[in-house]
Amino acid sequence: MVTATFTFELTVLYFVAANVIAILAYVLFVKYKARLQRRYTRRITRAILTYLRITEVKVSVKCINLENDKKFIVFIESEPMKRFRLSHLVEATLRDHVRTTCELELDRIYWRFIVKEKMVEGDDEYMRESLRSMVKSKYEIADSSLEMFEEANKSAGYR
Could you give the angle at the alpha carbon of 104 between the alpha carbons of 99 and 109, nearest 5°? Predict the structure, then answer.
């Protein structure tokens, strides 16, 4: 019969237990921060959607946070509307709205306006004008030489 005995030094055992507890605490902290960031992005998205619901425009909002602080980046996708033509003014009031309702800051706001290929009855007049100008202006692309480019610049009044 063979007997095996193991001797553990108590300090090594405490050190291993402390490391396991520290790793567990770190994992729980990271999960908590991720959950908190998801909650913040949902709150901001909901606040922006309720704010823009007044305009009665179909809007898509995506919110992200890259630096894990309380400043967020927002992407707003909408049809081109005349009331959004001065979107920097809408952004200022939107920032104030998010600051008061969510107590969070919007760092940047990016707009994307989707233009349909065909006009539909009930479209905004601004969208109709932009579509008309897109249809009327046909761009022609052709290869040309550097001399032709310089000549066109001189005739246009550029150096």
Answer: 80
Cα 101 to Cα 43: distance, rounded to the nearest angstrom:
9
Whether 129 has a pLDDT exceeding 70, the answer reads: no
Residue 139 pLDDT > 60 = no
pLDDT in tens, 68-86: 677 899 999 887 776 676 7
- pTM of the predicted structure, to 2 decimals: 0.64
User: Three-state SS across the chain?
Assistant: CCCCCCCCCHHHHHHHHHHHHHHHHHHHHHHHHHHHHHHHHHHHHHHHHHHHHHHCCCEEEEEECCCCCCEEEEEEEECCCHHHCCHHHHHHHHHHHHHHHHCCEEEEEEEEECCCCCCCCCCCHHHHHHHHHHHHCCCCCCCCCHHHHHHHHHHHCCC
Q: Nearest to residue 104, comparing CAs of 113, 95, 112?
A: 95
Label residues 71-100 b or e (16+ Cβ within 10 Å = b).
ebbbebebbbbeebeebeebbeebeebbee
